[in-house]
């Protein structure tokens, strides 16, 4: 009976794992490298950064690195089609240029590939130049709880809001293919290594169901070992 | 050493396994939730740091800043801007980590002594913060994030306390029947909200642990009889609850229920009864007096203000309160005025979404609604089964009325207290109903016992099948919730 209970428990768990957990590991998602500034998650936080024709908006403290391969931003609320834009990523010993052609649809997240830096840095800059005649507006976020350590300027003049920028490593990649990276993300700022996170992850995914299944099976076996006459729960007196 | 080994060998295997499960899940939760992203976690950490570094309680109303300089520095790395924003990620590059360490090393020696307030949790009683402050001090060589790791691990120990006491509670209820005992305990170890709250810095997990200990002591007292020592012990645990959070006051009615039930079950002499009543009364008064002294010394706020809302003098209408509670669970009757507070927040949101299923981080991480639908159906079926088993096996169940009265009375005391506090907050003009799923954590052991009672009441094979399905479902829910948080913060 004990083995049957354990087998039944693990079979049911395996069924769930194959049906629900494996697709989760396999599903592609944007692989975020960093969010030096934040995309607004509700309209109340949205304060667009306006860039007139010929102007350049820059944001500092961008953490460029070998895995920062895409820049994400969102255009909004200007005349369409939007003007062409030039993005310049720079930092100590690093400069890369990407171009966004005219005619970008509004309120859609734009993802531009950019040549990554060869080494990690925390004090990089991203500049967006409006190469057209019409102004463009880019998603920004108000200062306060939503703002980060970066400062945004337009033609060198500081703004109260921040340009919303997300850096990606891949446009889409499964979590299963990034487990090592995710483990190192979790270990960062903690007295742990990625390997320790890996071990804990394995304990959670494999050890927890196994331990609960064994506990259940042991409980069933212990109940079986107790003679029916010793089942105290059947005794009616609460004062025993 | 051999004595310790003997003691450890006496721990039943299912309990040892479930303690290990709880430890793994709690540690996992502490890692998949980015620092300071739990509900009010920054403020709780601010309280702990100020208490540990200065020996003083931060003010709820005044002061130069809620957080010490090192915490402000940590929040400035992007942890504040990503709060409740699913599109933000914590810093994780080696460059960002090194930059923070360099900045932390440059801080002045007294940087950790700032953060005197105003702190939103400054009105809370100090017990949990004293416990965590000890951890802060013990981690003397660690930086700010290393200390948070330790604080969260200490919260995790509270889950182990809950699991251990639930095992004992289920032992009192089901005696030597291991299957229901294991199911009840596993429910606590696997409930996602319990794991989540044990992985962050927040008073609620200690409150839940204390309530679980109280329940065991109360059940034991009801079985063995009321003595002045047991009454004093129950009152002492109640004082611990009151010293942990304002919501801990809800244990006072549960204490009265436990004392009355224990007396009724054994009908001791008048002298013994008076001794027991006196002992619990003295301990309660002494505990509350101690709290008052601590709060006064720390310059803290009103007695149990904030979330417990006991100090406020708002308008109070019993009729409106009853109507409000009715409409929380059932459709509004024609004779009732609409319930005050935000629309669309009722039993499903509180019990199903925020407690049984769970919402994580600071409410921005949640399951797809189909999961909550499945949880709701499961809860409904289990409640129906519990009722049916109780009705069909009434003669077998009735002799256990003291246990049922204590467990049921404690759950009702908590839920009613939360409704009253919520009603007072809303009637006082507040926008938030001040009632969320994690506030129900103190009754998790009772939920576990209720599920286990269904398993125990069914024929043996059916009980095993139900136990298997429930526990696989809870393992899936728990791992699924962890996965959601990994995706939210680190993917």
Plain-language structure description:
The complex is a heterodimer of chains A (240) and B (491). Chain A has 240 residues and is an alpha+beta fold. Chain A contains three helices and 14 strands. In chain A, helix 1 packs antiparallel against helix 3 and helix 2 packs across helix 3. With 491 residues, chain B is mostly helical. In chain B, a hairpin with a 4-residue loop joins strand 1 and strand 2. Chain B has a two-stranded antiparallel ribbon with strand order 1-2. The mean pLDDT of chain B is 93. The chains are: A alpha+beta (240), B mainly alpha (491). At the A-B interface, helix 1, strand 1, helix 2 and helix 3 of A face helix 2, helix 4, helix 5, helix 7 and helix 8 of B.
What's the topology here?
The complex is a heterodimer of chains A (240) and B (491).
Chain A: H1 2-26, E1 28-34, E2 49-51, E3 56-62, E4 70-76, E5 85-91, E6 94-100, E7 109-113, E8 124-130, E9 136-138, E10 140-141, E11 152-154, E12 157-158, E13 162-163, E14 166-174, H2 179-187, H3 194-225
Antiparallel strand pairs in A: 1-14, 2-9, 3-8, 3-11, 4-7, 4-9, 4-14, 5-6, 5-8, 10-13, 11-12
Chain B: H1 2-9, H2 13-32, H3 41-54, H4 69-79, H5 94-105, H6 127-138, H7 144-174, H8 178-190, H9 192-198, H10 204-224, H11 228-244, H12 251-266, H13 270-298, H14 318-329, H15 347-358, E1 359-360, E2 365-366, H16 369-392, H17 394-397, H18 401-427, H19 444-457, H20 460-489
Antiparallel strand pairs in B: 1-2
Helix pairs in contact in B: 2-7, 2-8, 2-9, 2-20, 3-6, 4-5, 6-7, 7-8, 7-9, 7-10, 7-19, 8-19, 8-20, 10-11, 10-12, 10-18, 11-12, 11-13, 12-18, 15-16, 16-19, 19-20
């Amino acid at each position: 009976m004990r083995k049957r209970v354990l087998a039944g428990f693990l079979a049911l768990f395996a069924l769930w794992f194959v049906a629900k957990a494996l697709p989760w590991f396999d599903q592609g998602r944007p692989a975020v490298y960093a969010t030096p500034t934040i995309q607004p998650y509700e309209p109340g936080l949205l304060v667009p950064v306006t860039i007139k024709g010929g102007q350049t908006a820059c944001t500092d403290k961008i953490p460029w690195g070998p895995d920062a391969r895409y820049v994400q931003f969102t255009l909004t609320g200007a005349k369409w089609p939007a003007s062409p834009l030039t993005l310049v990523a720079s930092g100590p010993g690093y400069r890369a240029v990407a171009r966004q052609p005219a005619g970008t649809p509004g309120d859609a997240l734009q993802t531009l590939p950019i040549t990554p830096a060869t080494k990690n840095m925390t004090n990089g800059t991203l500049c967006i130049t409006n190469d057209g005649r019409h102004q463009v507006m880019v998603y920004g976020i108000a200062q306060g709880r939503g703002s980060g350590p970066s400062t945004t300027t337009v033609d060198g003049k500081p703004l109260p809001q921040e340009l919303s920028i997300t850096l990606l490593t891949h446009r889409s990649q499964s979590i299963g293919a990034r487990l090592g990276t995710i483990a190192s993300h979790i270990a960062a700022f903690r007295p742990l290594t990625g390997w320790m996170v890996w071990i804990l992850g394995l304990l959670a995914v494999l050890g927890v169901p196994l331990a609960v299944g064994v506990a259940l099976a042991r409980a069933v076996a212990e109940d079986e070992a107790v003679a029916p006459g010793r089942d105290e729960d059947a005794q009616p007196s609460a004062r025993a | 050493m051999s004595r310790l080994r003997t003691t450890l060998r006496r721990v039943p295997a299912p309990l040892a396994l479930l303690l290990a499960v709880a430890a793994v899940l709690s540690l996992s939760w502490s890692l998949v939730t980015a620092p300071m992203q739990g509900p009010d976690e920054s403020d709780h950490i601010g309280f702990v740091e100020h208490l540990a570094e200065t020996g003083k309680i931060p003010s709820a109303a005044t002061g130069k800043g809620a957080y010490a300089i090192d915490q402000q520095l940590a929040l400035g790395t992007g942890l504040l801007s990503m709060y409740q924003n699913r599109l933000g990620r914590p810093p994780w590059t080696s460059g960002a980590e090194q930059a923070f360490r360099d900045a932390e090393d440059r801080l002045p020696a007294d940087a950790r002594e700032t953060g005197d307030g105003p702190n939103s949790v400054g009105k809370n009683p100090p017990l949990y913060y004293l416990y965590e402050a000890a951890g802060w001090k013990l981690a003397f060589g660690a930086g700010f994030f290393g200390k948070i790791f330790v604080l969260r691990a200490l919260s995790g120990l509270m889950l182990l306390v809950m699991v251990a006491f639930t095992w004992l509670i289920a032992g009192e209820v089901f005696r030597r029947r291991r299957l229901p005992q294991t199911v009840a305990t596993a429910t606590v170890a696997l409930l996602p909200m319990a794991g989540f709250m044990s992985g962050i810095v927040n008073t609620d997990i200690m409150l839940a642990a204390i309530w679980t200990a109280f329940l065991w002591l109360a059940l034991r007292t009801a079985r063995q009889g009321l003595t002045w020592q047991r009454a004093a012990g129950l009152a002492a645990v109640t004082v611990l609850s009151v010293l942990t959070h304002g919501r801990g006051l809800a244990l006072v009615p549960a204490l009265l229920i436990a004392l009355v039930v224990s007396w009724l079950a054994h009908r001791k002499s008048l002298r013994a009864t008076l001794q027991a009543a006196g002992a619990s009364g003295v301990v309660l008064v002494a505990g509350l007096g101690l709290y008052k002294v601590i709060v006064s010394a720390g310059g803290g706020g009103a007695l149990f203000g904030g979330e417990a809302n006991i100090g406020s003098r708002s308008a109070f209408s019993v009729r409106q309160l009853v109507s409000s509670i009715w409409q929380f669970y059932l459709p509004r009757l024609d004779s009732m005025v609409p319930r005050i507070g935000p629309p669309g927040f009722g039993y499903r949101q509180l019990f199903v979404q925020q407690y049984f299923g769970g919402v994580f981080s600071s409410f921005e991480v949640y399951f797809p609604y189909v999961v909550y639908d499945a949880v709701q159906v499961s809860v409904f079926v289990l409640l129906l089964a519990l009722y049916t088993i109780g009705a069909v096996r009434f003669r077998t169940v009735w002799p256990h009325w003291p246990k049922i009265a204590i467990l049921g009375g404690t759950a009702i005391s908590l839920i009613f207290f939360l409704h009253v506090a919520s009603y007072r907050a809303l009637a006082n003009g507040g926008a938030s109903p001040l009632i969320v799923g994690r506030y129900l954590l103190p009754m998790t052991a009772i939920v576990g016992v209720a599920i286990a009672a269904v398993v125990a009441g069914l024929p043996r094979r059916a009980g095993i099948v139900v136990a298997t399905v429930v526990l696989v479902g809870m393992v899936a829910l728990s791992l699924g919730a962890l996965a959601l948080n990994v995706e939210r913060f680190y993917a």
